[in-house]
From TrEMBL:
The gene is LOC112649130. Residues 642-661 are annotated as: Disordered. GO terms for cellular component: integrator complex. PANTHER family: DEAD/H BOX POLYPEPTIDE 26/DICE1-RELATED, INTEGRATOR COMPLEX SUBUNIT 6-LIKE. PROSITE patterns: VWFA. This is Integrator complex subunit 6 like. Residues 3-227 form the VWFA domain.
Length: 738
């Protein structure tokens, strides 16, 4: 799982503009987004972890750490602002401490027990800066200095702040402010000449001097290819140079070899690739790289180790040794002058043994733990890591299987015991596992000793517990904003603990200017207000444009001075230096930051009675329960069923008439003239009682021939019909007062 940490320069110099009109900080944000887009094309990017660190003071410099997701990372990246100093050294130290936060807990470094290349957290630290002078609160610095004091427990066990699986790459922006008329030069991107270049080379990375947008895109594509799982090792030559090789591949002693002149391949600081297992996706290994000291029970503490182990190689040609079933580790070397020199010799059947100084007990150089060998196709150089002092062990194991048939005699056991005395204690457990895999008998005691004293082991356990507490503290501070200072604190130089407002001269001057007096002595608490804080005299001050100092009346000088101080220090959010329009102006970078606005809003009030169910809107009818079950739009219609529908005698049941009645409301319907009934006895006359609807429970009103009373008769009749229908449907007693 590669870790990609972006260190963005947020100093004030990042606000400078390029010929495109964008600031350096905007270019840095766009570069990070483009890098993530290029990286997403690789299927292996699903396991990437992204972190974001700025040049702010720790711990506020950590914007996205171990627990933040990708959305938080992008949000913090978008909201970055350039205002501060170029504290590159402190920012690098904070970045490395963040990466090393959990290493002591997980045991990746394995202090005092050898270095395991297959226990790693490959990390790429990419910093984007403008390469200007390094500034701090103490002044301008000419060289890059990393703080030696670190709050992380266990940092004293390693001399450098970084580890061998962490590399630093720098994108130094040198884009001009004016468009260049000269044609752009194509080719590789050169390294920058700033102070960060040397730091990049020490960690195994490099810097890029970016002068155009095309060069920036080229650098990002190169950085995507640099994401490899591996560790950095210092390879140094020991002994004389090898004899030159002729064109036929044989040694040519007639050709002179200069063993004293320094060659580029004599010392290389390069990466070895640690490939993950194809089945599990996790690197698998068996043998460590030995420590540069012999662990002893008498050691009071562990000596600090270098971040990158120094592996010395001898140029004496040897035959590569391998036996069946004995596991070994194979790592490919990154292309370098050393690999180029070995491949040019065209000797794939010989190897050079590798050592670690002071790793043995009786030998200063130590015993070989592996060898460098070119591949049979002469395409790369591999580092083979074998058991410690393998030239002695492999013949013994070969005799055990082929001669003694897994039944060793006394002479063989004595030779094997003498070999174990030259073996560092931390090699006993891997060797025992390897012999078990080979099917050999139990030749090593079960009571293994790691070689460390009890005090050292207790110290490492104590450091692990302290690291957990420090890790929780740092992770809790991730994403917090630095506190904003309000106003200027002015120290009291009177020495008596009395405020400036107690002075008679000051009160007299204040009374002459503004016509007001200072607070009385009895109203002030001298213990609480030993000094005073500059604030606003009048909180209702409105923004004003810049004015001529001579146009300000004398009585308004103090208010104007206070306003100017507030504009300079920005201690009041309602006063802006230019005009009223600036109150409503928002920078483009902050227009989409709606989350910060939501944080300032007050929390909504709770409901008065949250247990009471909310009442649905019933459109004026308090007894209406379900719109689907009952749809009464008119007084004379109900669609619940045909058995509840009341019809007038002689009324046609056509759908056209029902639609016409549904579309007309009772209150809006014009009063109709009662139909004239033909009386076959007396001719035309008033309507008979048979025309009225027959209801057994209703008292039929007396018919009156006047017009107004006739209309009231019909209205009261229709209301009675409505109430009867509602009683039949809802089963409720309705009371209505006319």
């Amino acid at each position: 799982m590669p870790i990609l940490l972006f260190l963005i320069d947020t100093s004030a110099s990042m606000n400078q503009r390029t010929d495109l009109g964008t600031s350096y900080l905007d270019i840095a944000k766009g570069a990070v987004e483009l890098f993530l887009k290029l990286r997403s094309r690789d299927p292996a990017s699903r396991g990437d972890r992204y972190m974001l660190v700025t040049y702010d003071e720790p711990p506020y410099c950590i914007k996205a750490g171990w627990k933040e997701n990708h959305a938080t990372f992008m949000s913090e990246l978008k909201n970055l602002q350039a205002s501060g100093l170029t504290t590159l050294g402190q920012a690098l130290r904070s970045s490395f401490d963040l990466l090393n936060l959990n290493r002591l807990i997980s045991g990746i470094d394995n202090y005092g027990q050898g270095r395991n290349p297959f226990f790693l957290e490959p990390s790429i630290l990419i910093t984007i800066t403008d390469g200007n002078k390094l500034t701090s609160t103490a002044g301008v610095q000419e060289e890059l200095h990393l703080p030696l004091n670190s709050p992380l427990p266990g940092s004293e066990l390693t001399k450098e702040p970084f580890r061998w699986d962490q590399r630093l790459f720098a994108l130094v922006l040198r884009l001009p402010g004016l468009a260049s008329t000269e044609p752009e030069q194509l080719g590789s991107v050169p390294t920058d000449e700033s102070a960060i270049t040397q730091m990049c080379e020490v960690t195994g990375g490099r810097s890029y001097c970016v002068r155009t947008q095309r060069m920036l895109n080229q650098c990002l594509e190169s950085l995507v290819q640099k994401i490899q799982s591996g560790v950095v090792i210092n390879f140094e030559k020991t002994g004389p140079d090898p004899l030159p090789v002729g064109e036929d591949g044989l040694m040519d002693s007639s050709r002179p070899s200069n063993s004293f002149a320094a060659q580029p391949w004599h010392s290389c600081h390069k990466l070895i690739y640690v490939r993950p297992n194809s089945k599990t996706g996790v690197p698998v290994g068996h043998w460590p790289i030995p420590e540069s000291f012999w662990p002893d029970q008498n050691l009071p503490s562990l000596p600090p180790r270098t971040s990158h182990p120094v592996v010395r190689f001898s140029c004496v040609d040897c035959e590569p040794m391998v036996i069946d079933k004995l596991p070994f580790d194979k790592y490919e070397l990154e292309p370098s002058p050393l690999t180029q020199y070995i491949l040019e010799r065209k000797s794939p059947h010989t190897c050079w043994q590798v050592f670690v100084t002071s790793s043995g007990k009786y030998n200063e150089l130590g015993y070989p733990f592996g060898y460098l060998k070119a591949s049979t196709t002469l395409t790369c150089v591999n580092l083979f890591v074998m058991p410690y002092n393998y030239p002695v062990l492999l013949p013994l194991l070969d005799d055990l299987f082929k001669v003694h048939k897994l039944k060793p005699n006394l002479k063989w056991r004595q030779a094997f015991d003498s070999y174990l005395k030259t073996l560092p204690p931390y090699y006993l457990l891997p060797l025992k596992k390897a012999l078990r895999m080979m099917g050999a008998p139990n030749l090593i005691s079960d009571n293994l000793d790691c070689g460390l004293s009890y005090s050292v082991i207790s110290y490492l356990k104590k450091l692990s517990q302290q690291t957990k507490l420090e890790s929780e503290r740092i992770l809790a501070s991730v994403g917090k904003k630095p506190p904003q200072e309000i106003g200027i604190r002015v120290k009291n130089h009177s020495g008596g603990g009395v405020s400036l407002t107690h002075s008679k001269n000051f009160r007299k001057l204040l009374k002459e200017i503004i016509g007001e007096t200072a607070p009385r002595l009895a109203e002030l608490n001298t213990k609480e207000f030993a000094g005073f804080q500059v604030g606003l005299l009048n909180k209702d001050l409105k923004p004003q444009t810049y004015r001529n100092a001579y146009d300000i009346p004398r009585r308004g000088l103090l208010d104007q001075l206070t306003r100017m101080r507030s504009n300079l220090l920005k201690t009041h959010k309602f006063i802006v230096g230019q005009d009223e329009d600036s109150l409503h102006s928002v920078p483009v970078a902050q227009m989409g930051n709606y989350q910060e606005y939501l944080k300032t809003l007050a929390s909504p009030l709770r409901e008065i009675d949250p247990d009471q169910p909310k009442r649905l809107h019933t459109f004026g009818n308090p007894f209406k329960q379900d719109k689907k079950g009952m749809m009464i739009d008119e007084a004379d219609e109900f669609v619940a069923g045909p058995q509840n529908k009341v019809k007038r005698p002689g009324e046609a049941t056509s759908p056209l008439s029902s639609k016409r009645r549904r579309s007309m409301s009772l209150l809006l319907r014009k009063p109709q003239t009662p139909p004239t009934v033909t009386n076959h006895v007396g001719g035309k006359g008033p309507p008979s009682a048979s025309w009225l609807p027959s209801y057994p429970n209703l008292i039929k009103p007396t018919l009156v021939h006047t017009g107004i009373e006739y209309c009231c008769f019909y209205i009261s009749l229709e209301y009675e019909r409505i109430f009867i229908l509602l009683e039949e449907v809802q089963g409720r007693d309705l009371f209505f007062f006319f």
